[in-house]
User: Fold this.
Amino acid sequence: MRNDLDPVEFSVVIPTFRRNRELAEAIASVQRQQGVTLEILVVDDCPNGGARTVVDELNDPRVTYLRNPKPTGGVPSVVRNLAWPHAIGRFVHFLDDDDMVPDGHYAAVAATFADHPEAGLVFGRVEPFGAGPESQLQHERQFFARASRSAMLCARFGRKRAFAGQMLFDMPLLVCGAAVVRRECVPGVDGFDPNIRLMEDADFNARVMRKYGACFVDRAALHYRIGYPSLMHSPNPPPAQHEMQCEGRRRMRAKYRQEHGAVDFYTLALFTRAIRIAKYLTGFVTVDTRINGDARSLSHAGMNSRRPQGSIPDASRATRRTPDGTVPANAR
Assistant:
């Protein structure tokens, strides 16, 4: 238990929706962090406020319960935006309610920020786990291994443009919970875009990377729970999901072009294409990424990615893994 006079280093924001068991596991993984001071903000997007029981049973003064007075039905950007203005830590971590933080992660992140004061965001490897078929887990592990290799290559080109370009025009480097940001960066980019339903975290991370810079650490940053089937990396997502992904990607790019101008936008797209070609020529990322890794072909300076990819809502993912193939609005 921290002394009330101790400054809070990490504010952990956990949106939740009817997943009390997983929420308790997520909170426990945060509570196990050693060598740092922290607070946990649980934001309940459920109409009946069911997560309050989990928080009350913990009896931990570091854990605060917040209830969304107007449940969104699966708009994680809105739910996260309710919490971060209450955060008082130096760093903010947006953690999903069914994922977990590796032991020692926050201490490693704090050290990385200290070593790289110019970086606004620190992220690392995503390690999938879950109860799905082993073949599905292997697929996800291969995907995120490729993402990590891409992140290491992007880091060779600086802390801003290469990372941002990858998020805008190529395969995603991370999911929301794999990143920790400096507190001042969140209002600096106006938080999450409430108008993006899918890919809202890719948009947020891309904007932070472009404005403040990022640092990739080659160590586990997130234990990422995977179900079956995976909606995030499905080669044939349902039409409604695909359209929301496309709309999210279109809005990400339109916002970037409006803020930075057409010259910067197309230059970044071409720069990202050049890095991608370098991956294949050097064998840094294998060619099968193009086919199965959700980094679809980029044409017209990156504007026509056939199947834009990114993270899918995670604020309220209670039914995202429905076995009958239906796709809830809050599916990943």
In short: Residues 319 and 328 are 6 Å apart (CA to CA). DSSP finds eleven helices and seven strands in the chain. The first helix runs from residue 20 to 31. The radius of gyration is 19 Å.
